[in-house]
Every structure is written in C-alpha cells, then in structure tokens.
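Lecture 7, part 2: worked example. A protein chain together with flavin-adenine dinucleotide.
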Amino acid sequence: MNKTDASLRSQHRLEAARLLAGFAPADITAWDQAESLPAAIPGLLAEAGLLGTFISTEHGGRGWDAVSFGLLCAEFGQSSLSLLSIVTVHSMVMEAIRLSGTDQQRAEWLPALAKGKKIGAFALTEPDFGSEATGIQTTLVACDEGYRVSGRKKWISYAARADVLLVFGKLQDGGPEDNSAVACLLPTDTPGLRITPMKGLLGFRAAMLGEIEMTDCVIPAANLIGRKGAGINYVAAGALDLGRLAIAFGSLGAMEACVTDSVNYAKQRKQFGQSLSRHQLIQQMLADMITSYKAAERLCLHAAELRAAGDPMAAVETATAKYFASTHAVSVANQAVQIHGAAGCSAGESRTERFYRDLKITEIIEGSNQMQQIMIAQNGMGEFVQSALRRKRLMTGD
Ligand SMILES: Cc1cc2nc3c(=O)[nH]c(=O)nc-3n(C[C@H](O)[C@H](O)[C@H](O)COP(=O)(O)OP(=O)(O)OC[C@H]3O[C@@H](n4cnc5c(N)ncnc54)[C@H](O)[C@@H]3O)c2cc1C
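Predicted complex, written out as structure tokens:
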C-alpha cells in the first residue's frame, strides 16, 4: 500500500464516521427498541455517497477499493449493526450484478442502486433451507412473458422496505439446465409478492427483516442474473464473499466500540476505593479484548488487501477473517457487559447490551461460522500439504 492509498482510505473512513456521528446514540437505541429504521435513512446514506462506494464511477459509484469498503463497514459496525446490514445486503445485490450481470444489466441496474434510487435485498434463505442453500425450493417456471417465480423466503434483511429482491430459485424450463439454480431480480411491487415484517429478533432488530411469499410473480427473462445453473455456486457465492467482508469489518467496528466503552467505564466507575481499571482482573479482561481486536484487525485488513489486489486467496482469507472477527467479537461483547455490570444489561445505561445481542447474529449470517470453518479447513488442508511439499523439495534439492 502506498501513502496515497493510505491517506485516501483514511479520508473515506472519515466520510463514513462524520455521517454516522450525526446519529445520536439515543436514536440508535430507539430504532432498536422500535425494531425499525426511519424511512429517511437510505436517502441520507445515498446523499452522503455511501451506498455504492465499491461500484465503478462509470456505473454511478465511487470506485473505492475493498479496504476502503471494509473500513466503511467498520464505522457502521461501531455505530449500529442494523444500519450496517442495509449496506451489506444492498451491496451484495450490486456485487451479484457487477460480477454476473450482462453489460446491459450493469448499465440498467447499477447506477440506480449505487445512487440509492433503488434499495436491494438478498433473498436466499428459505424456511427449510439455510446453510444447505442448494436445497432451495423456490421455482422459476418459464412462461411467455419470461418466468413465474413462486416460493417462500425467510429472514431477509431489509425486505420490509427494499425496492428489489435478488431471489434465488430453481429453473423449470424443460431445457438442459432444468432444475438448476438461478438468480433473478424481482421488484417488490410485482403482483403476487407478499412481504411480512419479522419482529422479536435477538439482534439486528432494526434491520427490518421480512418473510416473503411469492405466488406466480412474473418477471421478464432479462431479469435473470448470471448463467442458468450458476445461481448458488457463482452468483450467491460472489455476493456472500462481499457480505462476509462487510460482516468481518462490522464485527471489528463493534468490537472497537465495546473496548472503548469498557475502558471509559472502567476508568470512571469506582469500587473498593479505586477505579475498576485498577483492579487486575478487570485489566485481564481488557487485555483479552484488546488482543482480540488487534488480531481481528490484522485478519480483516489482510483479507481486504488481497481482495483489492485480485488475489485468488482473498475468498478463503475473508472467510477466516469473518470467522475470527465474529467469534471474538461475541466474546469481547460478553466481557464488555461483564465490566459494565448491571449498567451493561440496560439499554438506558449503555450500548453494550445491544452489541452483545447483535454480535451473536454475526456468527450466523453470511454463512454460519460452521460453514466458514468447513471452508477454512478444506482450503487450509491443501495449503499446508503444498507448503510441506515445497519445504521438502527445498531441503532435498529435488
Ligand atoms: C438477523 C438475520 C438476518 C438475516 N438476513 C438474511 C438475508 O438478508 N438474506 C438471506 O438469504 N438470509 C438471511 N438470514 C438467514 C441466514 O443466512 C441463515 O440463518 C444462515 O444461513 C443459517 O441458516 P439456518 O438459520 O437455516 O440454520 P441451519 O442451516 O438450519 O443450521 C443450524 C445450525 O447447524 C449448523 N450446521 C448446518 N449444517 C452444518 C454442517 N454441515 N456441519 C456443521 N454444522 C452445521 C449451522 O452452522 C447452525 O449453527 C438472516 C438471519 C438472521 C438471523
């Protein structure tokens, strides 16, 4: 990274930090309690140019690299993970079009999404299929107008407000790719579509999740994104890779907030005649929190740097960063609540209780951490065998 890259990235991060500083902590708590975000939020993010940052300027975005995008997500994570989730799913829809769309689809959809004129949501999970995404039962039946989309989706972030859904299903056209996975864009004003808001979540309560029922929703053939058969392995996988980067950095940002709040609280709260920060068992917790944060930061930045450089190892390093950052963020939030005592258990006293609930979700979304572990182990095994072989060859001179 040269000096210009570094200063540009700091400048990008500052843009996000300035906008987010405008949201009062009491308002963020109120959104969480109301399980809803103000309708004006996407407009504010769009106006600040923060919705299409990684999209090229040619397509209405800002052309930021993966590191700047990650740092933006870290800023959102420090503020509100519900707010981050809109940026995440909206970005995943754009990423799918960017990677798998035709030139015409990119020209048609990306400028409106990047400028926030339309907001996207990512609809993969179904009531009976989560981690096993290849099992989804939504169908796209070929018809004269294009396709009739029918099926059910559940746990879809921001579905309650989105303008367009990226829906994954199985093709039924009687052709050679019959019953293979496909992705399509489905505007939310399409007849036959019903979205029911989901309430009472543990975390991400203001992310406006929805359950979706699709009954013969007609879309033109031009709304199919990616090749027939590539719906899960390429279109969803590419979008989820970006989603994982967003969640890794978002967890990092939330971790930073938990550490900062804990340090401040430990310094001002006195028990047994001295501030909590002087008690060594509190220092032990702070040491673990700080170490987790620093290790997660290195992994997140490494993954983003690889992605920015177009390195093929970026995907597995992103899975590693997401797995590590989310797991350690849960533990950091747990310790933050412990340091705050009862004040850590009340939304009126601190924001640690919200981070504690929200961060648990980061271990489940964008591919659960068990799915990340499988990916890390499968790639890592090959990597370590190769490295041992290289070492042996070097030593024997073969
Ligand atoms: C707040 C929130 C927001 C979400 N937003 C979206 C969204 O915008 N779009 C969307 O499509 N989905 C969304 N989801 C759904 C999310 O992606 C799924 O919850 C996730 O993929 C896991 O699927 P599942 O819940 O069906 O769990 P399951 O797949 O049923 O798994 C249950 C448990 O078993 C484990 N498990 C499963 N298979 C294995 C295995 N082979 N080996 C070991 N362990 C295994 C899992 O890791 C998990 O711990 C959201 C969920 C939440 C909670």
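The radius of gyration is 22 Å. The domain at 122-229 is CATH 2.40.110.10 (Butyryl-CoA Dehydrogenase, subunit A; domain 2). Keep this in mind for problem set question 3.
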